[in-house]
Design a protein that fits this description.
alpha+beta, five-stranded mixed barrel, OB fold (Dihydrolipoamide Acetyltransferase, E2P), 38% strand
């Protein structure tokens, strides 16, 4: 059984695949899973598809190998969506269908656009589909009152200046998703959530209590210290960045990891001792230190408060 990523890579080359072919297949997997799979997970999955007996001691990678990605683990509430977010996953109930329209593009070719509205317990938002994506609206399960899961959406403002969700090219809708109910993310499991509509604060968890939880966390607040910021060279030769923070309140502290371009963006305005709010971060155990850490995802945000 092969466990290390470099061994999987070598085993694929031993089967006759070139480096270009392996990297091309990895990129196809990453596009297919819309940012919800790591490069390492994609490599292991390709190995498995080629008959290689693979296993990872990292439970997150092993879950990817077994193709058990639960997109609902990445779901956020509609009220948490802001302009410019990508790889959005939301679950809601269809409350209004605005229909399908044909139009002529500037180059003279024809196009199709369809839209509808979904709501969860926090808010409602318009979903816009283009061309072949519109076929989902013709499905027998597509109707008012039906639960629908949106995977791989991005947010932007429409003509009326209201926020709406568009599907990326690799995005998809899951109609009447099996085993998914509303709401998937329960209000009383969140951290530092404020019910702005009624001006009432909900259950609040301290960072000390946070160490007893796992999974996606909607909000957490505290005072920040910059632990480390460095440039990294990945195994494929690409450059990346890592920003490590320490978030504290009166009860405890926890480490925060921010990767890639978001690390660069955050270091520009985060100062030691500042109060910050983190949104949509993922809490898991570091396999090396055996300590809980908060990790940024593509839907995560950092705000200075």
């Amino acid at each position: 059984m092969i466990e290390r990523a470099e061994q999987v890579y070598q085993a694929l080359m031993d089967l006759g695949l070139s480096e270009d072919e392996i990297n091309s297949q990895i990129n196809k997997k990453l596009m297919e899973y819309q940012g919800f799979m790591t490069k390492e997970g994609a490599l292991y999955l390709i190995g498995k598809e080629n008959g290689i007996d693979v296993y990872s001691s990292d439970p997150n990678i092993q879950k990817e190998i077994e193709e058990l990605i639960d997109y609902n683990d990445f779901a956020i509430l509609i009220e948490d969506i802001i302009e410019g977010m990508q790889n959005i996953v939301i679950v809601g109930r269809v409350t209004d269908i605005f229909g399908i329209n044909n139009f002529t593009k500037k180059d003279g070719t024809s196009g199709i656009v369809g839209s509808f509205q979904i709501c969860d317990l926090s808010n409602c938002i318009k979903i816009v589909l283009w061309n072949n994506q519109v076929k989902d609206m013709e499905n027998e399960y597509f109707k008012k009152g039906e639960i629908i899961q949106v995977i791989g959406g991005y947010s932007k403002k429409g003509i009326d200046d209201n926020l709406e969700i568009h599907l990326s090219r690799q995005g998809k809708l899951v109609l009447a998703p099996e085993g998914v109910t509303l709401p998937k993310i329960k209000k009383n499991e969140n951290i530092n959530v404020y019910e702005e509509k009624v001006g009432k604060k909900s259950s609040k968890f301290t960072i000390e209590e946070l160490h007893m939880k796992e999974g996606f966390i909607r909000f957490v607040k505290g005072t920040v210290q910059i632990d480390k910021f460095k440039e990294l060279t990945l195994k494929n030769g690409e450059k990346s960045f890592l920003l490590k923070l320490i978030l504290s309140d009166d009860t405890a502290s926890i480490r925060v990891n921010i990767w890639g371009i978001k690390a660069v963006e955050c270091i520009k305005f985060v100062n030691d001792g500042a109060g910050i709010k983190l949104s949509n971060v993922f809490l898991k155990v570091n396999s090396y230190s055996d300590e809980k850490e908060l990790n940024f995802t593509k839907s995560s945000r950092l705000e200075v408060i």
